[in-house]
Amino acid sequence: MLTGMPDRPRILLDCDPGHDDAVAIVAAAAFADVVGIVTVAGNVPLDRTTHNALVMRDLIGLRTPVHSGCGRPLVAPPRHAGFIHGESGLDGAQLPDPTTPVDGTDGVEFIIETCRASEGLWLVPTGPLTNIGTAFRLAPDLPTRVAGVSLMGGGSFGNRSAVAEFNIWADPEAAAIVFDAFDPSTPGTSAGPLIMAGLDVTHQFQVTPDRIEMTRALPGRLAAALAGLFDFFTGTYLARHDEGALAGAALHDPLAVLAVTHPHLFESTDRHVVVETSGEHTAGMTVIDERRLLERSEANCRVLTTVDAEAAFALILDAVAEFSV
What we know:
The chain has helices spanning 19-31, 46-60, 82-85, 107-117, 130-138, 142-145, 166-170, 172-180, 199-202, 209-217, 221-239, 254-261, 309-323; strands spanning 10-15, 33-39, 66-68, 122-125, 148-152, 194-197, 206-207, 249-250, 266-275, 286-289, 301-307. The protein is of the alpha/beta class. It has one domain (10-323): Ribonucleoside hydrolase-like (Inosine-uridine Nucleoside N-ribohydrolase, Chain A). It has a nine-stranded mixed beta sheet, with helices on both faces. It has a two-stranded antiparallel sheet with strand order 7-8. Helix 1 (19-31) crosses helix 2, helix 1 packs across helix 13 and helix 4 packs across helix 5. It is globular. The chain starts with 9 loop residues before the first strand and ends with a helix.
């Protein structure tokens, strides 16, 4: 835990590890008080995302409960991303098996109980929004109890379709519940912000070769493991894009954490955002209202637009160094 940080936010991390989720766990442990981790099916099936969360908890010595959550989307068929993260979800490094068991298998109930017992938590989902959407549907009071939701997902362009980013595309119905919960026109919605770290900003934060070598140069087991993960992640990313389109893999998920712990790193704009759930070619699209018309809908989302990538990666290195022994 890095010291000297005033007002460490309390967060509940909802994730589907995944290479970038693993880094989000490290960043959250370094810069926030993590009250729990809940897993969801996404990058890989639920048994693997839960396994990977337990591996990361052990690897960094984090003392926080891990609960498994939803194993499939609300409506859509299960969709995974082994073609990016490998069949394990964390291909690229020899990682130890977990030494500690999962703390529970009803992650949705854990979210509900934790938010009710300790108001003012940040929910930070970095995978499909199935757990959060289900919790909001079962407990409509939750959006008014949380400090806010900072999610990785969406954007003005897509990566699983021309317009849909993976996390939203994987469970658009759950995502629609979450975005609607912050719509000012809906009675009983949250006063806290909904922050969207979408592809527009996460593609500015890439694991370039020099950043991989900075990670590898750090001493300890965690740094070595992450460098191997970055090698694999960057390889699959670059192989799927036009030559020269990216300098490395986009390290999406830590930005949802840093948006809460280090908001000064970002520029943002408030917009009204809805999730398309039924379009043949547009399901999972985050429709961002960029109009300047006076009759546009009131904003429900803080859309991150830019990040100081150098400063953000320096923080990631600090976090890795803290736990790499």
